[in-house]
Design goal:
Layout: H1 2-7, H2 13-30, E1 44-47, E2 53-54, E3 70-73, H3 76-79, E4 120-122, H4 124-130, E5 134-139, H5 149-162, E6 167-171, H6 175-187, E7 190-196, H7 201-209, E8 213-217, H8 221-235, E9 238-239, H9 248-252, H10 254-262, E10 270-274, H11 279-293, E11 303-309, H12 314-321, H13 347-356, E12 360-364, H14 366-380, H15 386-400, E13 409-414
Parallel strand pairs: 5-13, 6-7, 6-9, 7-8, 10-11, 10-13, 11-12
Antiparallel strand pairs: 1-2, 1-3, 4-5
Helix pairs in contact: 4-14, 5-6, 6-7, 10-11, 14-15
This protein binds pyridoxal-5'-phosphate and zinc ion.
Pyridoxal-5'-phosphate is lined by residues 147, 149, 174-176, 242, 274-280, 338, 385, 387, 415-416.
């Protein structure tokens, strides 16, 4: 099945490759990014819990077998040798530079707003304040719609449209809503967003300006999810909830590819990631395995650290108790809306990555996030989202516990811009 699908490339893909070659040649004097002209596509989908395989050529939500996330799998053995690290050099400065490792089959279906290839900023003043040899901040606030949600929704919307979807829907208390609105607008799809009334107002206004149909609900995210499920049943909306369809994680995994490529094909000692649904953390973990299978990196892995808000820390609690799955958190509260996720369907994937990498999970208070937004801003020039500031706030705790050592190289994820949270 795998081989059939790889060989099933569109008849004109050869011509595209030639055009692409011409672009790379002209790059030398023009320095203009070439259009993405590379065919991609998964070989199949796989249940993350039991390993059952499904075709990737039909729309899917959670796995039929276990109601757990599906992962896209690629013919990595076939791609090894065909796609080299060197061949990436002349490619476009966005996440489509990894097209062969992405699920969109026809390059014409890639929706592009400038997502990915965000700067990985060396922050020596922050490093010395924290007492760590080196600290990078990967500034995801520079993505379209000012958060890393753009990566996931770019891929999910592109692939949904490729498979014939015309209306998408999402329950969201934050940045995923405006990212969905943006990619749906660019793709010409209708976006239905169901958001809690206390979603940051900048995000609601942004999503409205981007043409989404918005319903505000006086309740929590699970009430919003129920409304979306109803719309999916009654009107055929396609539900883009985190890890409930297979392709948002494919967009988020590109952070793992970028970290390696931007550091010259090595990885930091520690990656600190603010965790809600955990898509980025498990996505990067998947990317590391793929890159090793491609021969791009060796077996070294960073210690993966999950940071959550003290008012909503199901992963931290499960990590401390040593369980494989996380119980949902009651009465979740934090102003870091991206971290207000009481139950994650990919909980076991997050916990497994933390454990296998010898990482950790820690909680920080909202007050600490606020304080560190200021520290980070003054020491780096980056106005971080509270979720991003949470990663810096976690470093002193991690040093105390020996998860980070003073001579480590540490990478913090600033997952969004602080501007989205201004009231
Ligand atoms: C959604 C979000 C997060 C959490 O991301 P997950 O991949 O769901 O864990 C962190 N920070 C910001 C700014 C977000 O919007
Ligand atoms: Zn299964």
């Amino acid at each position: 099945m795998i081989r059939e699908m790889i060989d099933d490339s569109p008849p004109h893909s050869g011509a595209r490759r030639t055009q692409r070659q011409a672009w790379s040649d002209s790059l030398i004097d023009s320095e203009i990014s070439p259009p993405s002209g590379l065919p991609g596509g998964a070989s199949h989908l796989e249940c993350t819990l039991c390993g059952a395989e499904y075709t990737s050529e039909r729309l899917r939500g959670l796995s039929d077998c276990c109601s757990r996330p599906l992962y896209a799998r690629y013919d990595l053995a076939g791609l090894r040798g065909k796609v080299s690290r060197e061949s990436l050099r002349s490619r476009s400065s966005d996440l489509w530079r990894y097209a062969e490792l992405l699920p969109v089959r026809d390059p014409e279906n890639a929706i592009r707003l400038g997502e990915g290839w965000t700067p990985n900023i060396d922050t020596p003043r922050l490093a010395s304040r924290l007492g760590v040899r080196r600290v990078w901040v990967k500034d995801e606030g520079q993505n379209p719609t000012a958060s890393f949600k753009a990566r996931g929704l770019c891929l999910a919307v592109s692939r949904a449209r490729e498979l014939g979807v015309t209306e998408v829907a999402l329950p969201s208390a934050g940045n995923a809503g405006s990212a969905t609105a943006a990619y749906a607008a660019a793709a010409g799809l209708k976006a239905h967003l169901v958001m809690p009334v206390d979603t940051p107002p900048a995000i609601i206004q942004e999503a409205r300006a981007l043409g989404a149909d918005i319903e505000l609900i006086d309740g929590l995210i699970n009430a919003c999810a129920a409304r979306v499920a109803e719309g999916a049943r009654r009107f055929g909306w396609f539900d883009l909830s985190t890890l409930k369809e297979p392709y948002r994680v494919e967009g988020k995994k590109t952070m793992g590819y970028e970290v390696a490529e931007q550091l010259g094909w090595r990885l930091p000692d520690v990656i600190v990631y603010p965790t809600g649904g955990g898509t980025g953390l498990v996505g990067m973990w998947k990317a590391f395995d793929e890159m090793q299978a491609l021969g791009w990196i060796g077996p070294h892995r960073p210690r993966m650290v999950s940071v959550q808000a003290a008012g909503c820390a199901p992963i931290v609690r499960a990590w401390e108790q040593g369980t494989d799955f996380a119980e949902p958190w009651q009465d979740a509260h934090t102003y870091a809306s991206g971290l207000r996720v009481p139950g994650a369907v990919g909980d076991f994937l997050i916990l497994r990555a933390i454990r296998e990498s010898h990482g950790a999970a820690v909680a920080v208070s909202d007050a600490a996030m606020e304080r560190w937004t200021g520290e980070l801003g003054r020491l780096t020039g980056i106005f971080a989202a509270p979720e991003g500031a949470a990663t810096a706030a976690a470093v002193p705790l991690l040093l105390e516990r020996g998860v980070i050592r003073p001579d480590d190289e540490v990478l913090l994820f600033n997952t969004g811009s602080g501007l989205k949270y201004v009231r």
